[in-house]
Amino acid sequence: MIDWLRRDARAAPEIVLGERRLPIVVLRHPRARRMVLRLAPEGDAVRVTLPRWGRTAEAVEFAQARREWLAAQLDALPRAAPVEAGGTLAYRGAELAIAWSPEASRRPALSEGAIAIGGPEKHLPLRLRRWLEGEALRLMTADLAEFCAAAGVPVPALRLSRAKRRWGSCASDGTVRINWRLIMAPDAVRRSVVAHEVAHLLHFDHGPAFKAALARIYDGDLPAADRWLKDRGRTLYAAFG
């Protein structure tokens, strides 16, 4: 039992979409007034949110009646391109060619439009992910210090997040968490999320004062960054899940 959300405790029913069989996860929300159907961001489940008094059978019927829409949503998800020699790696909004050679250094090195890396080929995805996480921590640390200076607040602790549905968060103790996958997005998008969390150090809600603070400390186009995340945010999960 979660404070405001309860998941049906029984075994999840399933739905067949093309060649895939996905569980239907039923969630009950105390403030829900109608059923809401969503495909999970990773495409591995169908979620139906309904009022506390809603019946699981109705949720399943609701999902089954919208199979065509769900199938279209599933087809629209970005497909995972394998992280492999000769492939590409998203980094700061660009695609880097993965130049692997067994004789090269295991430490990734950037060159013009490519990332050179050596070592065992089977460990290539893991090493590149660790490199991306290191780059994320380096750049987000600088972003955080810059925006905190602009906001006039002390620099809090920074942690990398691996959340599936949130790009950033600010805890009650001031700790800021930013999704490491944002290192693959354009700089302006990553920076907008860091600035958003810094603004929460001043105002914990999303009221007018928060929006004014965010507009003051962020030096980019907030609507454009928000649109990028809405339209392309899921693509950041394609390579590493």
TrEMBL record:
<protein>
    <submittedName>
        <fullName>M48 family peptidase</fullName>
    </submittedName>
</protein>
<dbReference type="Pfam" id="PF01863">
    <property type="entry name" value="YgjP-like"/>
</dbReference>
<feature type="domain" description="YgjP-like metallopeptidase">
    <location>
        <begin position="37"/>
        <end position="231"/>
    </location>
</feature>
<dbReference type="InterPro" id="IPR002725">
    <property type="entry name" value="YgjP-like_metallopeptidase"/>
</dbReference>
<dbReference type="InterPro" id="IPR053136">
    <property type="entry name" value="UTP_pyrophosphatase-like"/>
</dbReference>
